[in-house]
Hints:
The complex is a heterodimer. Chain A is mainly alpha-helical. Chain A has helices at residues 6-24, 31-50, 67-88, 104-122, 127-145, 152-183, 188-197, 202-218, 227-234, 237-259, 267-290, 295-313, 318-346, 360-363, 365-379, 385-399, 403-428, 443-461, 464-473, and strands at 57-59, 63-65. Chain A contains 19 helices and two strands. In chain A, α2 (31-50) runs antiparallel to α3 (67-88) and α13 (318-346) crosses α19 (464-473). The two termini of chain A are 21 Å apart. By secondary structure, chain B is mostly helical. A two-stranded antiparallel sheet of chain B has the order 1-2. A two-stranded antiparallel sheet of chain B has the order 3-4. Chain B is globular. The chains are: A mainly alpha, B mainly alpha. Chains A and B meet through α6, α8, α9, α11 and α16 of A and β1, α25 and α26 of B.
Amino acid sequence: MNSLLLPDLFILLQGFTVLGIDLFSRKREPVVTFQLTWSGLLFNFILLLCLPYDRTVVFFGTYQVSGLALLFKQIFVISAFFTVLLSRYYFTEKGNFRGPMRAMGEFYGIVLFCTFGMFTVVSATGLLTLFIGMELATIPLYVLSAFRKGDDLSAEASTKFIVMGALSTGILLFGYSFIYGAVGSLRFVNILAFATQYPLHPLLFLGLLFIFAAIGFKLTLFPFHMWAPDVYEGAPTPVTAFISVSSKATAIAFLIVLLYGPLAPLHPRLQYLILLLAGATMTVGNLGALKQKNLCRFMAYSSIAQAGYILLALAGQAEMGRASIIYYLLIYAAANYATFFIISIVSQKRTEEFASLRGLGKQSPTLAAILLLSMFSLAGIPPLAGFIGKFMLFASAAQEGYYFMVIFAALNSTVSLYYYLLLIKEAYILQPTAGPMVFEVSFVQQSSLAILTVFMILLGLVPMISTKILLIVQ
Amino acid sequence: MADLFLSYSYLVLLWPFLAFLIIGLWLGRYNRRAAGLLSVLFSGLSMVCGIGITYGYYRRVLARPHLFPDKTLLVNQFDWLNISPDLTVRMGIYLDPISVMMIVVITVIGFLVQIYSLGYMEGDEGFGRFFALLSFFAFSMLGLVVATNIFQMYVFWELVGVSSYVLISFWYHKPAAVTAGKKAFIITRFADAFFLLGIIMVGYFIGNFDFQDLNAPETAAILNKMFMVKGIGVNLLALSCLLIFAGGWGKSAMFPLHIWLPDAMEGPTPVSAIIHSATMVVAGVFLTARMFPLFAASALTLTIVQLVGAFTTLFAAVIALTQHDIKRILAYSTLSQLGYMMFSLGASQVVDNPTTAGINPLGYSASMFHIFTHAFYKCLLFLGAGAIIHTIHTNDIGRMGGLRKAMPKTYWSMLAACLAISGIFPFAGFWSKDEILLGAWQSGHYLTFGVGLLSSGITALYMFRLFFMVFHGQTTFGRQLKTEDPLMSFSIVILAIPTVVAGYFSKEIFSAYFSSPMVWAADKQLLPGHPLWLPVCANLLAVTGIIIAWYLYGRGDLSHVRLLTRRRGIGYQLVVNKLYIDELYLFVTHKIIFSYIAAPIKWFDRHIVDGAVNMVGRFLHICGTGIRLAQNGQLTVYLGATAIGIILLYVLGRLPI
């Protein structure tokens, strides 16, 4: 069953090809790299759909492909695909108020390699592979967030990102050392055997706490979230979108692999901590979002709050937890990318402030309606996808009997409705202060928005997809 | 071929839904003509699918009774929402005699009404919107009748409610239409709240929503227990049945929730036609029939169904006698006919044998038969009324007269429909009404039987009052009227065919196949046979009604009527004003609820609830500002927070929770 490895090999090959073309092409900005990247990712997605999901195969003793891994790979590929489509316009002259970005080929190459790193995270069979995957997925993000060379904000964002990231990597390795010290091996099989035998071993738990803190950085959990608003604001907007979806998905995948895998015997002891972190994170994210005026900072806080909801499901049992998280990530990705597409369209001539949205409802009712749908989906209003997604996440925690936490999360999502509606208010109700907006919606943007909108509505009306996911991850 | 239709049976729903999407999202704004034609085409395709399903169902199920003892076939079923591992809501298509019959009725009438609307809505600025909504209405109703479980039914039930709301208030610039739409929506929603409560209750105790399980005898046995609420014993079975029936009570506009239906005629006439015949109002009767095996286990429920139905029958017939608005008369006649269907279901309970819950199968099949025949002639009556209104631009029958010459096609078709609704032999209505009366008589409900018989006489009287006042007498229109619209007359004339023959040709089908969704517990208590005096008596009464109508209204001389109404002063006023039911509702809602309940609540809400909410809001904003301040952009602060976070995690992880 070597075909199971095809997506990983293909994305590597694709990355090298894109970089190679960029290197040897005579043109400054070879558009063919864009065509190759998006079509390759689309092909990869179709390939992923065709593979069998009921098998688990280990390659070379270290690289494992299972149904769960394939589902996560689908999310990574979709996310990379939309990032690529989103970024296309930023490489043109009229693309953004901050001016055009350069080095298109490199950008796409890095996105592809970063996605390969994410693939590695979900395919790990040992702590070492897991670590390498995580670094492969994170280091390219530092480069991407500094991609506006010469832009102060971008440089500042990247610096903060690197310093915080380096610290978290250090903490991660520190946590590893405890586990290695206790078990004497980095392989999941050995760790699981050890943890089953001595679930109360102090070193194991200590190691897990450090790992949790380190991943808290990637997942923007409170109090490790503080880099997020600055980086989201400073980084180029497509990179922000990529970080908010792919990086978050990688981090939660990391936790899923670890907590439902080798360290599963420690899961019951960690449940309260997870709930506490989830509650604190969603509260801080929601409260922080209340007062924002910048769209990207706003999205940063919104995604911090969403991370809180996602983490909540991790307190549940393995099947329900996995299934609800994967389903929610799909929904979250759709709504987030739709919002970022609209931000990118609005900010062609204007800054990324709330006030830039004014007059959108009159001037382009379709865009405003899509914004409305995305906001409602993020806030979890039925019958949109976000409602079913949140329902599943909360159900996962409720199954374990944490009703108070579910009520708390529901109250939190009521608060979130307030600030999501603020955006709607800007788009529909407030009168524009400046003249009419000037923007163009390219064919790529139109079709991406159409796909995302259909996705948002369809996942809400056809929730049985989640049942299929549940069957796969069991 | 037969199996092909069955395996693609979801197409019957898909066509109207596609029409809704295409016209609603795109075509309706660009090309009205094409939108109308596409809608008609798609509803025609839906009708073809519906007839195909009937054929397939006959071949697969009815022709092989040994394989399908309960005559039920589930196709295209899939899991829709997984609420918890052991409670899944499914969607699918449930085929049994009544749902197949409803598919045929809805698609055929939907198709004819769409053709009619091409003529009727010509030149209206909401042309595209109208066809989109009409298609959506058909889609919702089809989804309702094929529901495999009560949850799916509820989803489509609400969709029917919403689409009727937007269609009744279609001319939203008319205040009366908006009010009528609101009234219909609020009253049916009010009833639906009880329905939902019933669904939740049954779902909680049974752990399943599928009709097949709900209707199983075990379900009734599980539910049949008493529990105490503040010292009053309540039977769980009766309570849940009545809660579910409440949904049908509102939707089928049974007394006293009937007040929305006469007002609903503010919508365009094709909408009234489809609401009154194939969709919406029969949903309540359909629900009662669908849940019949469960309802039948509770004697109290059936008694209430019967009483409500019988009372509505007589009550609405009496009111219809005095109305002047042509569509309002027809609306009350619908109420009266719905009453027949409802009491027929309730009267299946055999009187002599209440302990063993004896059930007379005739009541059930007669009720379904009446839905079938009534759909055609009621649709015809409304379409005819629409054609008349379209020609002379008034609803008041007092200002009509002598239209016989100007509208011959409408005249003859309406005559057939009036004869059918009056139950004159051998028109369609005769056969079904005869079975309903026979059923009630056999089961021993003599009072209900009498009410039904009397109402059939009154029906003939008010229908022919309408007929004579519209078509006979002196013509009040001096100028030349425009000729009948060919598209509109087409539907009217086509509908005249089933109006005449549907009863005679399908009575065998109904008595053969519509008898048992459950094992009937009836024994020999039933009065045997079909006495000849019954139809003769009913027909005599109806003919008497027609003769009285001719005497009073037929000759264009209304002096007798004036004399009569003057002499019956108070009683007449009471009936003309519909027993002041609407005023009573207004009094209760405005005077009592608004000023004594709503006003104090409003004060409480304004000052205490809002105050608390504002406090919370202000507090949250202060917290938000705090978080924004902490986020000061200094990297050292972020690193420090991380370090403190790790220490916190360690401390919390050590806590012995």
